[in-house]
Write a structure and sequence with these properties.
eight-stranded parallel barrel, alpha/beta, metal-binding (chains A, B, C, D), L-rhamnose isomerase activity (chains A, B, C, D), homotetramer
Chain lengths: ~400, ~400, ~400, ~400
């Protein structure tokens, strides 16, 4: 097996972007529970996000969600983030919380709704100019609940036209990242339900259009690492939205439901060159901390990705290749499992300390008193959530 | 095949209870869309529910949800319903929208939360006395999102104790109906996830405890009609919550996603004697009309159950038994399919007219102007939804 | 709704190809049951297939499976088929029943296995010249059972190379049709698991490479009609393998498990121009009659596709478009359901008679005595199955 | 966390029964690959099974499958096993490979088929007397492929009658263990599809009837550890059939597909007292080594269960209980994960050596030359498989 010392350089390069909305309240259709200390403003979300980077050293940027994170002065927001030690990252558009989008946004039959949705994305591009963001991430809630409700084919063509209009306004250093999702909130047909559709749509746009793979957005049983492999092979894996699921899009902490699956995904990332900065793969979290503490939930998530990436890097690829070439089924599998079952935590703790970071970021954050402080300080105002 | 004239008596006996909450707004975690005319009060919900019965003649009772439908004077509410031509039906408890229940209700480790949940159910029993309701339906959101969060075994024992305390207070004519659900809102473990658990729990209580089968609450691929058969065989099928699903608990209009499945379910109901009033099976809807019109959505649902029950009743059971005895696979299947593919709609239209009902309830309701009237009249106030 | 008389021309154009292997024995890994009268030779399979066409008038060609259907003289086989009133259709390659392919065929790491697999396909192209077949259908069992067993990325590249070598030998009127399958016989990763992979592979080959959609080869919950729509939109829907499933790749009679899904699939075929001969979509059956009679099973299947195509053609597309444009969810859905619930069987019976066919092909075949005749005549020899 | 030294006593008590049929050939419906050295006789299967115990010290008994393992003299077979250092374990009946059972066995409508099936089980009881086996394990392939094919209700009643007849013949120390399975080989309805059905059937029989949980026999997404908890709570968990799955009943090496799930299952076993010999839970493997080496596949499987049981025993249950009581979601989860991520392999290696076993059983077996020896020696004869 590879020695841990030989993978630290690549681990250092692994940056995990955190979503501003993870620090606000979230829930299910049944109930959103609020918690003391929840941010009221974008700035407070960034303050919380900065804690994650402070204790892990691995989460240097924060993704924003427009309009949830709309501010008057993005330059000031950028400075605020920099003051906290983090940068602003991907801009996520939102066309699912306005009454206008009840029957679709970029795919809508109604030209007014579609116009509003395109204009929203053009506005996001402007914001990206101000924030210095590279990526415009588009996840669409568009779809239908009943067979016949929409003309599936026309929606697809309409989507292509809408995306082309947005793509035409991209700056040279900007990218359009199209996410797909199996279902929800649409319960019959989703307009971008699978990687194939996202791939076909972005391939028609041009080189700066890529796919976002959310690990919770697949049919039961889907081999996700295969898709990672394929999108890297086709040069279109733009981003990950990490989280985990037992059933549907549960948005649990990444690695919580099936750690071995996360390992296999990260192994294919390594195999396919996805850790190479030139590959342009953005590693992001997209989770909902419905019942657990939010900042610790994010720290745990960043650590999970980091620990599992370490395991994936430890795989003895020479031994693996030899076993594969010999069709030694058990031997090849054992090479993978050996890395997976290795306890990398002591190595990572020591490595963190060597870099001036706490050995145990979870414990260090708990000891910092930050959570108590914000619970005491953030009184009044309206807690942030998906509605704002 | 059986003649339609020979099944009308049994069709007349088929009453489908509608849920008060179907007339309020509902949605997903992403967005709840509001619509003009949505009820602001329990009385207005009942008014809307009464329309469904008026046009179909098949929905004589309305289920209530406590505390959403709490009123000061249940006797007055009962009179209001009677004035509209309908009765009050099942009382549905709710222990998922209070902060106290964040970590469970009847299964909670916290004695205070558990006490509050039991008391809520005892209060529901009181209300049932006032409304004349037979059934207390219990659906629990209790569960956990992460492995280890709860002690699964202790929760099960705690649930048994809580249910026993409630069961002890049941009146002689009252029943406890325990619903199960595969997942959501809990994303790792649900405390009553399957029919087996619900059955084991109610069997331990006594004869007046039965199971509620919600057609959307199963793992992908589950053969639901088998469960219908088994629960009828075991004497514990207390109620249906009808709806349909493509993916998770989509709560779509019953029969919309897989009409043939609805047919098979109703065939097993007929086969197992479930249409016999003595069987005590309550037929209820539990749906969310997120994007479609609510009252027409309910009328469509009642008609779907009625039409499919008609097809199920048309099955030539003698021919079926003969083919089954002969292991004539295709022949036996053809007997079922013949009934399924029969267009019962003209028969039902004529039969409705013969009973003083509109031949086409959907068209008749649309022509009635009711929807426009409530949209114009119901101005101001707060539209009802899951929160109230 | 459209009148039945207005769709008969398009129905007449609907030809459903039957597979030679449906007349041989098939089963599960647990047991293959044999039945009296099962064909011993390719000629006898064709004789049985011809019965399906004789009684339905809708199954004019028979697909062959190589090497199961290898003969010395394909010209003679072609004449035999013609004498029975049918033609030879698609050639299906087989690289899953030779020990050489234990670890893969076109994707194998072992050059010898890969060479054998490519040569097998080149041999199939030769046979196609002799049989006059247009399509070479490739379904690969290639994959792995354990993580690490194969290098997923290399397998994909190897596949591309293998396909390119085969594609280069295609005649001008020939096509390469690449099927995808979610899982089985591989239990961890399949080398062509989804439509996206098949699409990416065929798009890299050229215009005469297209995708085969087997209706049983998807993850649970997959919206198959969406894929039909997308592949037609992208110009790559080459063929259907029709069958139906409750759980995995059950290979049941098409339309048996979810008739409404079959309706939606055929509606998207109609919507996307897939019934137009110029579209080049081949409609084939691929089923296993494990416990039911084989020839009646095939007749039933052909009728199911035909009946459901009739319903799909009856959809009032003007009314549908109007309801869709108005975002009338229930109205649009009702247009579809109206066609689905229409009993087309009497219309089809009359139409068949008008064309000199039996009104009820199932009854007519049963009355023909053919099954008894072959059971009596086909004594001795080795019954055909998947092994031969 | 618990110290490894404190769990070794309980680990020593963990015996994993291996199935005789794992050493024969198995495959899919597409192909069964043979391998050199495959046993030709029951005795050779036992010889191979004994190797697993020799190198792991944890697999002291071998389950037999009747009629695959029928011999004339069971006393001699028992001595042969004892000479190899192992015992004979569970007797598995088989009513799925005789033409008589095409349409069912214990549930069959045909009295002759049902009689044959009951008699087969009575014969198994006799064999158990000779082999000294405690458990009669019944897995039924009974079911149907098409709706209507069977009368689901009657089949259930017939099953109850058949089981009662068998149960009545059980010796005082014998048990009837009823397995359930979601689907396959039946593709529409399985007569014992879920734990609820198995539980209801065995509860009606008496105390010596218990449930067998095969980890691959559930619907996608099913929380299996919940069922483990529930069956232990109800006192009816009789046995495990361990294996793992990505999709259907893949029968892969236990722990290969989702090691964290295996951990959760074994944690619930520990939690519920299932490791206590008094609980009577039999731990068995039921796997198919289609493409990997068989004896190493079995050794790997035994080690996987043993390693994961060690991790489950290491859970700090005091810390877990404290975190659960405090509703500390992340803290409670972390207690579990801490044990899961602990690398127990060095501890187990040392422990094995301390008991005179090889530190690395896989390597030791490979070095033993046994595989080469049997490949060279076992020439001629018919290799064992599912058919014999």
């Amino acid at each position: 097996m590879v020695r841990f010392e030989d993978v630290t350089t690549r681990l250092e390069g692994l940056a995990i972007e955190v979503p501003s909305w993870a620090y606000g309240n979230s829930g299910t259709r049944f109930k959103v529970f609020s918690t003391p200390g929840t941010p009221r403003t974008v700035e407070e979300k960034i303050d919380d996000a900065a804690q994650v980077h402070r204790f892990t050293g691995a989460a240097p940027t924060v993704a924003l969600h427009i309009p949830w994170d709309e501010v008057d002065d993005y330059a000031a927001l950028r400075r605020h983030a920099a003051d906290q030690g983090v940068g602003l990252g991907t801009i996520n558009s939102n066309t699912f919380q306005d009454d206008a989008y009840k029957f679709g946004s970029l795919t809508a039959a109604d030209p007014a709704a579609r116009r509003q949705a395109i204009d929203h994305h053009l506005r996001c591009l402007e914001i990206m100019g101000a924030t210095g963001s590279r990526d415009l991430k588009i996840w669409l809630a568009d779809g239908s609940n009943y067979p016949g409700q929409n003309d599936l084919r026309r929606r697809q063509d309409t989507l292509a036209e809408s995306l082309a209009e947005i793509y035409a306004q991209l700056g040279d250093e900007q990218r359009l990242v199209l996410e797909y999702k199996f279902f929800e909130p649409a319960f019959y047909a989703t307009d971008v339900p699978d990687w194939g559709t996202s791939y076909a749509q972005v391939a028609a746009l041009g080189e700066r259009a890529v796919v976002c793979l959310d690990t919770g957005h697949h049919a039961p049983g889907t081999n996700i690492e295969f898709i990672v492999m394929q999108l890297l092979r086709l040069g279109r894996l733009g981003a990950f939205d990490f989280n985990s699921r037992f059933y549907a899009d549960d948005d649990l902490i990444v690695g919580a439901a099936d750690p071995f699956q996360l390992f296999r995904i990260l192994f294919e990332v390594v195999r396919g060159g996805g850790l190479d900065p030139a590959a342009g793969v953005a590693f992001m979290l997209d989770q909902c901390h419905n019942v657990e503490d939010k900042i610790p939930g994010q720290i745990r998530s960043v650590l999970n990705v980091q620990e599992m990436a370490a395991r994936a890097l430890l795989v003895d690829t020479d031994a693996l290749a030899a076993a594969q070439a010999a069709n030694d089924v058990l031997g090849a599998n054992a090479v993978l499992m050996d890395a997976f079952y290795t306890d990398v935590r002591p190595h990572l703790a020591a490595w963190r300390e060597s870099r001036g970071l706490p050995a145990d970021p979870m414990a260090a954050f708990a000891a910092s008193g930050y959570q108590h402080r914000i619970a005491a300080d953030r009184v009044g105002g309206t807690q942030a959530g998906w509605g704002a």
